[in-house]
Design brief:
homotetramer, 407 residues, alpha/beta, Rossmann fold, Argininosuccinate synthetase, chain A, domain 2, 3 domains, 5-stranded parallel β-sheet, 5-stranded antiparallel β-sheet, 19% strand, elongated, nucleotide-binding (chains A, B, C, D)
Chain lengths: 407, 407, 407, 407
């Protein structure tokens, strides 16, 4: 263990990573660089600086990554209408590769030979951090304290903290929530405790970002979303940056009770786990993006994307953002978005996101002269359908004839 | 045209198929057998008998197919969590193969050499009827009047009707709805007119099966759904037949504003078309089925199903229910449902279907002793994760090393 | 029919298209532009000019498309290791989109409003020509005489030819072969007659491009193939253009009896058909391309390509080269080829193409320090495998435990 | 380590597993049960009994698994036309799940609490053995000595052997081959040494089962293969059991130089590795099975199988034979084989397997009356193709029109 000189720690300022900070210094006798990222989780980050200083840390990184996060990670993911296991919008998964990237960049800048993180050995996040780190720096050393130390119960952790003068009031930092939580601009998640029984309904006071549908306003609210190349670029006519749009959609969705999710998912490490999520803005984006694609994307291209989506979602969920296969799929996905331009109108009301209109001045493939039930003036020859059906049926007719002969 | 002796007509009793009935008799000089199916569309069928008799039809079939429809078509489809283009629950598509099957059965019984239907040459339904019919009887003749005749405008149709004494008040049969509609136990659909502009919001008074979320009750309602082999077999503790369950879920969903959908879809014949759908019961089933699978299905089996689902959905949408490839996929899908047993609790509230609990006494793969954030007493060795990550990263590390050497 | 002013005909100079030329002039009373392409089929093209002139054609196109064909169609296809139905290298399919493109270009240049071709109504080629043409010019008119006229038997065709002074000796142009044949730089194909019985062995004297393995030289021959970005750029150290390489590989493969294929394939129009093919150069390229990818492509990227390949192959077979979904897939495929650089050595011997070596100075991911059976000096920690296996097994162990409890 | 009472060892009788036997006894102080399987590898197995006895083993299993191996593992795999990475016929992979199954069965019979094997920590076989074992007995303990001990070089192993009186002449048992080899009825494989340089050609005297194409007979040999439900049941008219057929095909293929393969493959543990394989019988089966399917399988079913095949192949390669997803896929695959009945004639000649005919009295979907180039007497209406093409082109025409308007 003595061969590690300097480690970059993904540091939230909370109890767990504070214990890790101290534990790294003691166990590895190494210098620690702290890295705290603003991904829009809605917490003060400056306290993390003070805490790090108290532990004698001299290289402290506190980075505002919100724009990069939404522009280069969240939006590209939504271009694929990405959903894991039919439900989950990958709010935690998509933030990890950015953190991995910054950990490696900071390791390079500070000539650190290791990185460290506070993810447990049971979860997906360790995989996401480490696969990303290895892909970006194959020789980096990785310290995952939860897989190494013996502080596996909360009591042991607290006693270690007290013994080493780590402020235990930190544990109340998250308002005393009994849940294991993660938050960034895309979502907030809850796991553990009460939720470990998948039969039990989540408690109403667990939810933090959204009001319940019951408490949402009685009046619906309409939003106009403008898309360019598959990304939302303007909201109600106002052009904004990616992270500004997501923040505003979170606010609006949260207000209307949009984006709660309660599910049991399959972790990459092999177990099922129950999680609750609030993804108000993302829920709106997904609906709206499908709607704009519905008029601007060719059928077979849309179906190709749908066929590939679960695989792409699994790659992100499993931590393969920085893999060559994710990049290959992204190349295809991004290529398809060149025509995904136009606007979508959605209505928010008590938990519902309802698409009520969509159009594209430049790229609509909806051709009302053909689709009409009225006289189309020859745009489409109904007689063509006879031949279309006949040839599509041919192989089945041959088989049925054989079948009849066999009887 | 004179070589057709007898044709079985899919007959609703409405204006269009009444005109077709007469037109067939006149044009083909053939006997017509009428077939009217009760698929739960919620209309009186006996008037169809009277009308058919008026046209001199002597072989009249009016069949209650509701149980077969839900048990053998709707439920098998939901076992795959089937959704077309991310949204559409295939309410129209799934009814067509059953109608095709009955048309062929009746043709065999009545020694008819042809079948006929009222689907237009622009839509998917002609394809679904005819592919099904050809697959089941390769030598059947098919008459699709909309592709043959010149009554392509409403005026011409009405004038033909008046000329031949076909009661035109029929046109008000559907309450004078200006939409092209289709209904069965799974859904009701709307197309045409106002909806032909995808930018325009659907009018509130178009919807028939569901109240608007705004008008739904202020109190939520909880449902307990029991699954056996992937199908719902009991509702709130009461065992019911497939079609009874769907009818009851429609009632409950409709009451709570559940299951409205407004989308632009890609037809098999090549055009985009805007449709609105109400699928209250189906919307509940889809959510609940995913939830019961989430605890009873192996991860990789679930992902395999997710990967195949869009293909399976397209097969049904495109009319290939009776194809060998649909059957092959169904074999796989049904095989996976042996362990899909247990219950799901959902909450209906103003358009929302919220899963709040799920469990299985016999088949839950959720293992709280492993997933727990608390001490798991050795059920899972966190150190295993290190090797798991290292080997999964190996190929990317080798590539990154090569990349570094190249620089 | 009178509304067509000028039609561009894909004209081989042979009997069939000469009859079509005349038939177009007579039936449509339109001007005809002839287009004859050199795709490396190995025939004199100038006679086509003389014949066209005899029919009074004034706009005659004879284009050498060999380089474009191999560079922009054949090579991109082989980047995907494309094989239809496990066997067929798509020699005919891949030439059609280029012909379609030139037909449309010439129609634009000559202000023609229609194109015409000699493909029958039973085959795939009509589909490939016409889908391509429609995709490139949605308003083009297409005349497919075989679907229109009544010259459906050889006798009728000959009698028409004689009646209109079309030299019937043309029918012996292909050496009197009784087969329906197609040739270009990638392959020559045979269909019809004797081959219509799939139980019957093809006759030895049918084959034209390859000697039989039995007659091939007794001495093997080694080839060194150099790849850049997935394409062969040099043969035995000599840099050549795409079409020159393919021609030389055809010569070498043909000499060694490489590339014969006898199969029953599924046509897009719904029937099975028996075909024999000679693809000597393509057979070598496929083997060599897989070999260079085996050391330069990431595992998961290679598997992604393998998963998508059958779909890509079907797109080409079915005539969707100019579709947006083929383009989207090509974008992914081409993206993956950036690292496919290096060389492959193959041995040709009596029908066999045997890969005997492969390497890449710049892009080999083969790392002998890790793969070695000898001491790897710590490059790979075998203990990691334990954790890798344990976590990959976890879901199956949980299921087995449940299974045991149920018993 | 002291908690293991009895371990079942997969014992070949060779040096490595003999060292393991002794090492297990010494290290774990446990009883050892030996299990030696006859999978058709062509070696005397009785010597293994003598050796085991010498080490004091009292429970010795020597099982002839040849029929089960081919009938229940090899043949089901070939029903899917299974090939890994375009080339590899999975000869090693498919034997491992059977060995895993027997290890667990024997552990149950002998009340052993552990199993052990001689696979290294770098390869795929450890994964295949252990995933299989865990799936069949989730609580089994697994000892993988190569991942535990320090005998990682050949010298250390030999010195351990000499020290413990293990006959070192065993090392010459495989004729002194310098390669790491594996053999069973499906194939023999070679890895290591000279082959670790992928640029170097394999040496001719490495190959053991096949003559070189150069030394194969100058006269071709024809075989008639009869299929029932996708499996070969008779060879040249003689009905045989599965393993007898494979043995005979190996003899015939080997005689004619059929089935050599030299490739670089991607291991599940993350590295590329070079291997050479001889699979004479399997190479013939693959070709013949595709041929019988070509006339008896529906197009879309065949394409579905082709789309799923790479996934199925990876499952087997990666060791997931006993997983629920492999079983789900097998259910689909087996379902499709009900009509795969008939015969195929192949010609073997100097390394070539050439399909020269195929037919099925009961299940041929090849309909010469439709496919014919001659007059089909109305079996197929060529005019249908026009409508077929028009509707398939519609979406591309709409897009092209939009594209033109934009210009």
């Amino acid at each position: 263990m003595s061969d590690i000189k300097k480690a970059v720690l993904a540091y939230s300022g909370g109890l767990d990573t504070s214990v890790i900070l101290k534990w790294l210094q003691d166990t590895y006798q190494c210098e620690v660089v702290t890295f705290t990222a603003d991904l829009g989780q809605g917490e003060e980050l400056e306290p993390a600086r003070e805490k790090a200083k108290k532990f004698g840390v001299s290289e402290i990184y506190i980075d505002d990554l919100r724009e990069e996060f939404v522009r280069d990670f969240v939006f590209p993911m939504f271009r694929a209408n990405t959903v894991y296991e039919g439900e989950y919008l990958l709010g935690t998964s998509i933030a990890r590769p950015l953190i991995a990237k910054r950990l490696i960049e900071i390791a390079n800048e500070t000539q650190a030979d290791a990185i460290s993180h506070g993810a447990t050995g049971k979860g997906n996040d360790q995989v996401r951090f480490e696969l990303g780190a290895y892909a970006l720096n194959p020789n980096i050393k990785i310290i995952a304290p939860w897989r190494e130390w013996d502080l596996l119960s909360r009591e042991k952790l607290l006693s270690y903290a007290e013994k080493h003068g780590i402020p235990v009031e930190m544990k109340h930092k998250q308002g005393g929530s009994p849940y294991s939580m993660d938050a960034n601009l895309l979502h907030i998640s809850y796991e553990g405790r009460h939720l470990e029984d998948p039969a039990a309904e989540a408690e109403e006071d667990m939810w933090r970002w959204t009001v319940s549908p019951e408490k949402a306003p009685d009046a619906a609210e309409y939003l106009d979303l403008e898309f360019r190349n598959g990304d939302i670029v303007a909201l109600n006519g106002k052009t904004m940056k990616a992270h500004e749009i997501l923040a505003e959609l979170n606010r609006l969705g949260g207000k209307h009770g949009v984006g709660r999710l309660d599910l049991v998912e399959n972790r990459y490490v092999g177990m099922k786990s129950r999680g609750c999520y609030e993804t108000p803005g993302g829920t709106i984006i997904l609906k709206a993006h499908r709607a704009i694609e519905s008029i601007t994307l060719d059928r077979e291209v849309a179906h190709l994307k749908d066929d590939l989506m679960p695989r792409y979602a699994s790659l992100i969920y499993n931590g393969y953002w920085w893999s060559p296969e994710r990049l290959a799929l992204q190349t295809l996905i991004d290529h398809t978005q060149a025509t995904v331009n136009g606007w979508v109108r959605v209505k928010l009301y008590k938990g519902n996101v309802i698409v009520v209109g969509r159009d594209s001045k430049t790229d609509s493939l909806f051709d009302s002269t053909i689709a009409t039930f009225e006289d189309d003036k020859g745009a489409y020859d109904q007689k063509d359908a006879g031949g279309f059906i006949k040839l599509n049926a041919l192989r089945m007719r041959i088989a049925a004839n054989l079948h009849n002969r066999k009887k």
